[in-house]
TrEMBL record, chain A:
SUPFAM superfamilies: WD40 repeat-like (SSF50978)
Gene3D superfamilies: YVTN repeat-like/Quinoprotein amine dehydrogenase
Name recorded for this polypeptide: WD40 repeat-like protein
GO cellular component: nucleus; protein-containing complex
Domain of life: Eukaryota
Alphabetical list of SMART domains matching this protein: WD40
One of the Pfam families matching this protein, by short name: Beta-prop_EML_2
From TrEMBL, chain B:
Sequence similarity: Belongs to the TOP6A family.
Recorded GO CC terms: nuclear chromosome
Gene3D superfamilies named in the record: 3.40.1360.10, Winged helix-like DNA-binding domain superfamily/Winged helix DNA-binding domain
Stretches assigned to the Topoisomerase 6 subunit A/Spo11 TOPRIM domain: 199-368
PANTHER family, sorted: MEIOTIC RECOMBINATION PROTEIN SPO11 (PTHR10848:SF0)
Protein name as annotated: DNA topoisomerase (ATP-hydrolyzing)
Co-factor(s): Mg(2+)
Top-level taxonomy: Eukaryota, Fungi, Dikarya, Ascomycota, Pezizomycotina
Record-annotated active site: Y118
Keywords: DNA-binding, Isomerase, Magnesium, Metal-binding, Topoisomerase
Domain annotation Spo11/DNA topoisomerase VI subunit A N-terminal: ranges: 89-150
Any one Pfam family match given in the protein's UniProt record, by short name: TOP6A-Spo11_Toprim
Organism expressing this protein natively: Aspergillus ruber (strain CBS 135680)
E.C. no: 5.6.2.2
Length: 310, 387
C-alpha cells in the first residue's frame, strides 16, 4: 500500500548556505544553517511566512537546533562549539540564561531536549554523553563514557528514560537515565551512523547512516527487529510520525522516504532535489492529515501534506 | 629531478631599478650607523626592522580581490650586545644577512635564501630564520624580495602549452617538452605566449601534477590546450607570482580559465584561498600575487560522497582533531569564509566536511570512471557550460 504526500509549498532560499537542522513546535519551524542566523517560520499559515530571524545566533554557522515538547525552549549548537539556549514567549524567541552554568560542552556535537525542556543531553566528539539540568542553570548531572568514537547523533525518548547515541564507527548506544547504565549493547551498524530516533512510545529505536539501511531496535531487548532497505545514498536524518506508524528518512542524494512500520515497507518516495537532505521533521497534525518538512543543501524548506481522499 | 630554465643568470641593472638603489641606500646607512656606534666607546648599535602582520583585522579588498590588512605594523629593534644572548644573536643574524644582500647587489648576482643559510648554518640555526629575516628586511625597506637580489629556492613546477621569452632574450618553447621545469621567476619573464591556452590548472599535489604532466594532459585535454602548475602544497611566492603572471599575460585569451584541484580537507581549502586571495604573512604583496579568476574544480565533499560506491571505504578518512580545529579557525578568523564573504560555497564546503567529519585526497579520482583525466575533462566541461 502506498501513501500520497503532496507538495504543500515551500520557503525558498531561507538561508544562503545549507540548512543543517530543523526543529518544530506546534506552530513554528526553526531552521539552522551554515549562515549565522536562525530562521523561524510559522506553520499555521499555508504560506509559511517568516515569523522571526534570530540574527547572529552563531557567527560561524549552526549545525543542530532542537526544541522541547512544549515549544518553549530551544537549544542550538554552532560550528564554533558553542551552545545557545533560547526561550519562546508569545511566539518570539530570545536568548536565555538557563544554561549559564553549563560546563564541558565545548566538544558537544549533537543535542536533544527532554519533553518538558528540563534536561539537555549532548554527545561529544570524543564519544561522551552528557546530561545537564536546565532548571538549575545547566548543572551537569550525567557523563556516560563510550569507546571514544565521534558522536554524530543523539535522541532522548519522550518519557525521558532513555538516551540513544550514534557514532562514526557504527556503534549505537542506549543509556538508561535512571540507572546511568547501558541496559544492553546493540549490534550497531558497520559504517558511520548519522541519525538515531526513538519512536514516540519509546519501544523502538531507528538508526541509519552510511550503510543506507535503517535498522530498528527493540529498546526493551536491544534486538534488531527490522532492516528497512531502499535508500541508495547515505541516510542523514530520521523522524517518527506522532502516532509512531510512519518513519520519515532523508538522504544525501536528495531522496525523502516514508516507511510504514506496520508493513516495514517504503510507502512514499520524494525526490524534488538532488542535493543532500540534512534534516526531516514531521509537522503537527492539521485535522486528520499529517505532514512533514525537509531541508538541506538546496537551502529551502519543502513542506508536504498527506493526500486525504475527497 | 626538475630542470631549471637557466634564466637566473641575467644581471639586473641597478640604474633601471629604483628599488635596488633604495636597498643600497638602506644597507649603506644602516651599516654605517652601526659601525659608527661600534666605534664610539659608549656606542649602542641597533637595527630596527618592521615586522610583518601577525594578527589584527584582515579583509578582502573588493577592488582587487586580495586579502589585505588594516593592521598597524610593529617595529622591533635589536641592539648589540643587547639584553640577552638571544638579542645578540638576532643582531648578528641581521647583520650577516645584510652583508650577504650587499654583496649580491654589489656583484649583480642573485643569491638564494638557501645560499645565505649555507654561508654559516651554525650561526643561523635554521633556514626558517634566514627566510623570516630576509622577508622582514624587504618589508622594512618597502620593496619586493627580488629587489634584494635574493630568491627563494624555487619549489613550484610547470608544464604546459606555452612559449616564453626571458628578460635576457632567451626563448623557451615548453609546448612539446616532456620534462617538467621549475617555475621561473616572474621578474625574469619578458613575455609569455599562451595564445593557444584554454585553461590553467593548479594542483595541490605534486604526485597528481606528475601523473598529468607525464601523460601530456596539457596537450590533449578535452577542454583544449592548457598549463599545469603545482606549488607542492602551500605555494611559495614565486609560484603565486607565476600564476598571476599568466593571468596578466597579454596573449591570454579572454576565455582562458583558471582552475584549482585540491584535496577535500581544510588545508586544501586554505591552499586554494592562498592562490585566489593571498596569505596573511604577505598581506602587503597579495594584490600583486592573487588570482581573482580562480575557480575550484574540486575536490568537493559532494563529489566524494555521491561516488562513494565505486570508491570503497578506503577513500574516506575522518578529519583529525587538528583538521577540525583548523576548519573552525578558518571559519572564525578569515574574511574569505565569513558569512558575508566572497565565497559562500567555500564556507558551505568546510561546514559539510565538519558535518560528515570527512576528508579525501585528490588521488581517489584515479579510481573514477575515465580516471583522473576523464574526471577533470567532465568537470571543466561543466564549468564552461554553466557560465
Amino acid at each position: 500500500m502506498s501513501k500520497q504526500y503532496l507538495s504543500w509549498g515551500s520557503a525558498d532560499n531561507v538561508h544562503p548556505i545549507d540548512i543543517f537542522s530543523l526543529a518544530v513546535t506546534d506552530k513554528q519551524i526553526l531552521s539552522a544553517s551554515g549562515a549565522s542566523s536562525i530562521q523561524v517560520h510559522s506553520t499555521t499559515d499555508p504560506d509559511f511566512p517568516l515569523a522571526q530571524t534570530i540574527e547572529g545566533a552563531h557567527k560561524v554557522g549552526c549545525h543542530h537546533v532542537v526544541t522541547d515538547g512544549r515549544g518553549l525552549r530551544a537549544v542550538s549548537v554552532g560550528f564554533g562549539g558553542e551552545l545557545q539556549i533560547w526561550a519562546c514567549r508569545d511566539g518570539t524567541w530570545s536568548k536565555n540564561d538557563a544554561g549559564s552554568g553549563i560546563t564541558g560542552s565545548g566538544e558537544v556535537w549533537a543535542v536533544a531536549l527532554s519533553e518538558n525542556g528540563q534536561f539537555l543531553a549532548g554527545v561529544s566528539q570524543d564519544g561522551h554523553i552528557k546530561v545537564w539540568d536546565l532548571n538549575v542553570s545547566g548543572e551537569q548531572i550525567q557523563d556516560y563514557e563510550t569507546k571514544g568514537s565521534f558522536g554524530t547523533c543523539l535522541d532522548m525518548s519522550a518519557d525521558g528514560r532513555l538516551i540513544a547515541s550514534g557514532h562514526e564507527n557504527g556503534s549505537v548506544y542506549i543509556f538508561s537515565t535512571e540507572t546511568g547504565r547501558m541496559p544492553f549493547s546493540l549490534s550497531g551498524l558497520v559504517k558511520p551512523v548519522r541519525t538515531v530516533a526513538f519512536s514516540p512510545a519509546g519501544k523502538l529505536l531507528a538508526a541509519a547512516g552510511d550503510s543506507k539501511v535503517i535498522v530498528l531496535f527493540d529498546t526493551s531487548s536491544g534486538e534488531q527487529v527490522a532492516n528497512l532497505t531502499g535508500h541508495s545514498a547515505w541516510i542523514l536524518s530520521l523522524a517518527w510520525s506522532t502516532t509512531g506508524e510512519y518513519l520519515l528518512s532523508g538522504s544525501f542524494d536528495g531522496k525523502v522516504k516514508v516507511w510504514s512500520i506496520d508493513t516495514k515497507t517504503c510507502v512514499a518516495t520524494h525526490s524534488e532535489t538532488e542535493k543532500a537532505v540534512w534534516s526531516v521533521k514531521w509537522l503537527p497534525k492539521v485535522g486528520r492529515s499529517e505532514g512533514f518538512a525537509t531541508a538541506g543543501a538546496n537551502r529551502s524548506i519543502a513542506f508536504y501534506r498527506e493526500a486525504t481522499g475527497g | 629531478m626538475a630542470d631549471t630554465l637557466e634564466i637566473t643568470d641575467s644581471p639586473i641593472s641597478r640604474d633601471d631599478q629604483p628599488p635596488q638603489s633604495q636597498v643600497q641606500d638602506y644597507i649603506d646607512s644602516t651599516l654605517t650607523a652601526v659601525l659608527a656606534e661600534l666605534d664610539s666607546p659608549d656606542g649602542n648599535p641597533a637595527i630596527t626592522l618592521k615586522q610583518r602582520y601577525k594578527k589584527g583585522a584582515f579583509f578582502i579588498n573588493s577592488d582587487n580581490g586580495a586579502l589585505e590588512t588594516s593592521d598597524i605594523e610593529t617595529q622591533v629593534s635589536y641592539t648589540w650586545p643587547g639584553k640577552d644572548r638571544h638579542e645578540a644573536w638576532k643582531f648578528t643574524v641581521v647583520i650577516r644577512i645584510l652583508e650577504a644582500i650587499a654583496q649580491a647587489i654589489e656583484s649583480g648576482l642573485v643569491v638564494s635564501k638557501r645560499d645565505i643559510y649555507y654561508n654559516d648554518p651554525a650561526c643561523f640555526g635554521s633556514q626558517r630564520v634566514v627566510d623570516m629575516v630576509v622577508d622582514d628586511i624587504a618589508h622594512t625597506i618597502g620593496v619586493d624580495r627580488a629587489a634584494l637580489n635574493v630568491e627563494a629556492a624555487a619549489k613550484g613546477l610547470v608544464a604546459g602549452y606555452y612559449r616564453l621569452t626571458t628578460s635576457s632574450e632567451k626563448f623557451l618553447d615548453a609546448r612539446f617538452a616532456t620534462n617538467d621545469v621549475l617555475i621561473p621567476r616572474a621578474e625574469d619573464i619578458k613575455e609569455i605566449d599562451m595564445s593557444d591556452v584554454k585553461w590553467v590548472l593548479i594542483l595541490e599535489k605534486e604526485a597528481v601534477y606528475r601523473r598529468l604532466a607525464r601523460s601530456g594532459y596539457h596537450a590533449r585535454a578535452a577542454a583544449g590546450k592548457g598549463i599545469l602548475v603545482t606549488g607542492k602544497g602551500y605555494p611559495d611566492l614565486s609560484t603565486r607570482a607565476f600564476v598571476r603572471r599568466l593571468l596578466d599575460s597579454s596573449s591570454r585569451g579572454p576565455d582562458t580559465r583558471f582552475y584549482a584541484l585540491v584535496d577535500s580537507d581544510p588545508d586544501g581549502m586554505a591552499i586554494l584561498s592562498t592562490y585566489k586571495f593571498g596569505s596573511r604573512a604577505h598581506a602587503r604583496e597579495n594584490n600583486k600575487l592573487n588570482t581573482p579568476e580562480l575557480q575550484r574544480l574540486g575536490l568537493c565533499t559532494s563529489d566524494i560522497v555521491s561516488g562513494a560506491d565505486s570508491l570503497g571505504d578506503d577513500a574516506f578518512i575522518s578529519l583529525t582533531p587538528r583538521d577540525r580545529r583548523k576548519a573552525v579557525a578558518m571559519l572564525k578568523n578569515s574574511p574569505v569564509w565569513a558569512v558575508d564573504g566572497p565565497e559562500p560555497e567555500w564556507r558551505a564546503e568546510l561546514q559539510q566536511m565538519l558535518m560528515l567529519n570527512l576528508k579525501a585526497e585528490t588521488e581517489i579520482l584515479y579510481q573514477r570512471e575515465g580516471g583522473l583525466e576523464g574526471w577533470i575533462d567532465r568537470k571543466m566541461a561543466a564549468y564552461v557550460r554553466d557560465r
